[in-house]
From TrEMBL, chains A, B:
This is Transcriptional regulator. Residues 164-374 form the O-methyltransferase C-terminal domain. One of its GO terms (molecular function) is O-methyltransferase activity. Residues 71-141 form the O-methyltransferase dimerisation domain. The keyword Methyltransferase applies. It comes from Nitrosospira multiformis (strain ATCC 25196 / NCIMB 11849 / C 71). It holds the Pfam family Methyltransf_2.
Length: 392, 392
């Protein structure tokens, strides 16, 4: 049995929450009084409880901490599987270990562990020696299906995973940790100068936002409007989805000239090229095209506060009275305590841009009010995406 | 409304599982017959279902895929918080945003997003403008408490996160992606040559295995034995926990000589130095010390198959008749379909070592039988750790 003098050495595998709450309060009281938390006393108390052998509910374990801290393992395992085309190959039918390893170029040493890890993570099924896609991975991670959302994961794998390695440095300096750090061109300059990289980036943007695009196309009260412009339209999926769902509308996709061919091909394949056209431009240098509805999806978060406000003013100027400005993003909740993804997206902007940050619906409505919009509201879309609507 | 010719463009936000199963079977049938999966037909069918507007249960969404693929964000956010000592600072009492940012050296640009992300992830509490630890982070991530498990996360942050960036390369080549790739010394040679790094590594090993150590100290039938040796003992926490819980036992920690001072200090602090001693050695060159019980925790997975078998034989040789060999690891389940952590630990060995891999209880029992052990069994410990016991 443990010597009571030694219990400071003992790590309790699971500790009742009820006593920890008490201790936590005691800690804070001590701190307020300027005293040190009585760590040893607390641990002694806990160890006695632990050694009493009672089974208690609501016990503290380090599992969630360890699981989250090591979550880059399942992330990178899935990202490598997307990179190696595992799900695209299996969409043609199940494959044996050897056949799949050969097709994907996997060295025998790690192949079985890798594929079985994907089984254990729920991304592959295995029957006997044959691997197959799950329903989800077959639908969403087969590159040959229009429902493919792997673009964002390809970008996460190639670009975001490595630069997030420098998160601490970004937090300490407030400076981006991508090409900007080494004095190379700005992220977007570089992206637009590389056609292959640009196409991957645009497809990634489509993959991550299509569910929200379809919701906007159906949920927004389009019957009251005739024209729209999607600012920073990228591949044009939002414009296409709006046109598909609302045959009375004509729309524009507005973006830098390099995007034009990619946008126009996309609109033609969707059979909406007669109602949806591309307008080249640069929102830093020009006014926005006039339309009944101005949309900006995942644009404002790229920029610093003064640019956010400038774009909000330009949207106001492009609208007629009664026109609508629709901003959609993975909004941070107003209390900044729930939407972890939105908050981490803002950390991603810290790493990727000189001044960008994500924001709450309340933040965005305040900028809209400041620009002159009379009515503003927030409406949820899907997942963590919401739209902020301002009526002129 | 969507033109039926265009539905291939539409990504269904959520699709009933029931129809996907059917389609998945159809895909495989087609593939077996040499035909291509009829993707467009399937998507048309799905889009019709989707557009029927019915709310269905069991719908497919990409959420789990996206959440897992982006899980390096919460992982790195937590790892940076450990690195910056956020939880250790808050263990002294709650702090305001400005005070905490100043103490941790956080630049104002990202500080609030970072700390609020930790709130949203459940690792900090916030009341008004003041941040405080949760019960879990206060217990497990305060460096000044013996219950600190952040050592493994410090190593994950400094070492594992960056080298996992090269998982794809490891899978394609079967070769490690750490210092070994650049022709530097082997991982362990390098570790043992760097006292500061060694201490961090050993503390990390203690943090990750203490819960299992305590379980072994209590759950194994120690009453039948008098002596034990812990092979690859590191800081010595397993030996210490066994001695604390079983006053009739005398034990040895066996490891390379560099570990000696760290081990002895640890045993003294725990008041068990009279019953637990350090034996320096190298298990490649020498026989193991004789004892009633030989333990190896997280050792076998570092090595290739022939080394695993050699160590199992040496354990057999070190035991008297009736003696026990106890191997404990995050065992892969025998079906290799459940313990994702064990399988990814094996991928970690792929990245870190020339031949290491993790294994199932059945694998380990087979090696024990081959070495001459008469009885073998597997017993669960805590979390994903289990022990394999072989009786001579």
């Amino acid at each position: 049995m443990a010597n009571p003098d030694n219990i400071g050495m003992i790590y309790p595998a699971a500790i009742p929450v009820s006593c920890l709450r008490t201790n936590s309060h005691r800690n804070r009281r001590n701190a307020r009084c300027g005293g040190n938390p009585r760590v040893h006393e607390i641990l002694r108390f806990l160890a006695i409880l632990l050694y009493s052998g009672k089974q208690m509910t609501n016990q503290l374990t380090p599992e969630n901490i360890l699981k989250t801290g090591m979550a880059f393992w399942p992330a990178k395992t899935l990202l490598s599987a997307v990179e190696l085309g595992v799900f695209t190959r299996l969409a043609q039918g199940s494959l044996s270990l050897d056949a799949l390893a050969e097709q994907a170029g996997l060295h025998p040493r790690g192949a079985r562990d890798f594929l079985d890890a994907l089984v254990a993570l729920g991304f592959l099924d295995r029957e006997g020696d044959r691997y197959s896609n799950t329903s989800e991975t077959d639908l969403f991670l087969d590159r040959n299906k229009p429902s493919y959302i792997g673009g964002i994961l390809e970008m996460a794998n190639r670009r975001l995973y490595p630069i997030w390695s420098d998160l601490t440095q970004a937090l300490l300096t407030g400076k981006p940790q991508n090409e900007i750090r080494t004095g190379e061109a700005d992220l977007f300059e570089k992206l637009y100068a590389d056609p292959a990289g640009l196409k991957e980036f645009l497809a990634a943007m489509t993959g991550v936002s299509r569910a929200a695009n379809m919701t906007i196309a159906r949920a927004f009260p389009w019957h009251g409007y005739h024209t729209f412009v999607d600012v920073g339209t990228a591949q044009g999926d939002l414009a296409v989805q709006i046109a598909l769902a609302n045959s009375h509308l004509r729309g524009m996709g507005y973006d830098r000239p390099e995007v034009g061919p990619i946008f126009e091909q996309y609109a033609q394949t969707a059979n909406v090229a007669d109602r949806v056209s591309f307008v080249p431009g640069n929102f830093f240098e020009e006014d926005l095209p006039q339309a009944d509805v101005v949309l900006m999806g995942h644009i404002l978060h790229d920029w610093d506060l003064s640019t956010k406000k400038m774009l909000t003013r330009k949207a106001f100027d492009a609208l007629p009275a009664g026109g609508a400005f629709v901003v959609y993003e993975s909004l941070i909740d107003d209390d900044r305590s729930q939407n972890a993804f939105g908050l981490m997206m803002s950390l991603n902007m810290l790493i990727e841009t000189p001044g960008g940050f994500d924001f709450t619906g309340a933040d965005c409505m305040a900028w809209m009010k400041e620009a002159g919009f009379s009515n503003t509201r927030v409406e949820p879309l899907v997942g963590t995406d919401s739209m902020v609507i301002g009526i002129k």
